[in-house]
Task: structure prediction
Amino acid sequence: MASSKRLGIIKSVIATFSKERPLSSLELRRAGVSRELAYYYVKSGWLKRLERGAFALEGGELSQDGCLEFLNTRFPGLHIGGKTALSWRGLIHNVPFQETLCLWGPKGGRIPVWFRDRFPCRYTSRQLFEQPIMQTTAISSLPDKHGKVTVSEPERALLELLSEVGTHQEVGEARNIMELLGSIRPESLIPLLIHCRQTKASRLCVQWAEELGLPWATQAAEAIKGVTGGARWVRKLASGHTLILKGS
Result:
């Protein structure tokens, strides 16, 4: 292929796509870049290969939102959850810079090294809610920031946070965060509580809400009566804490 044609194609790619977001092989092919031509652009310094089937335009800086949007094409249903979601929605503050991103998705997989190197993260594919009814419940984008990235709404984020208590989430910090969540919407939380598959998360949500005097505590307690069983729940957590939750 003549060099002038190769130059014209890559200039068209640069004009069409953002340098803040990776490009897939399929996107490049649709833009007229064959596998052989992509290899040529990598050797020539126009493209940088991130992994098999993923490239970045040289001379730009990949953004967190752009990379998350790209990952969503590889991990359908990927969303920001737990503590990160509560922070992005402005419900908790003073989150350290470079705090580990809490990523959730419906399927197992491993986040690529090129993403983890840029943005420290943890990916959870645990099925916290009954499927398929709750798979996309209480997940939405933030209209004023983060573009197309989807984020758990506060009620779902709370249960995701509580599900990690004693493993990835310190007990005291989780309780302190929950104390700030008086504005939780019962009409959104209650269906999630009823369909929550993890006893620890649902009972912890109700017990701490009652102890903290949160305005939605009574409605939450009524919602899970008989759902999680009546016996007291006692577990020694990986963190060393023993968690004792009363029966419903």
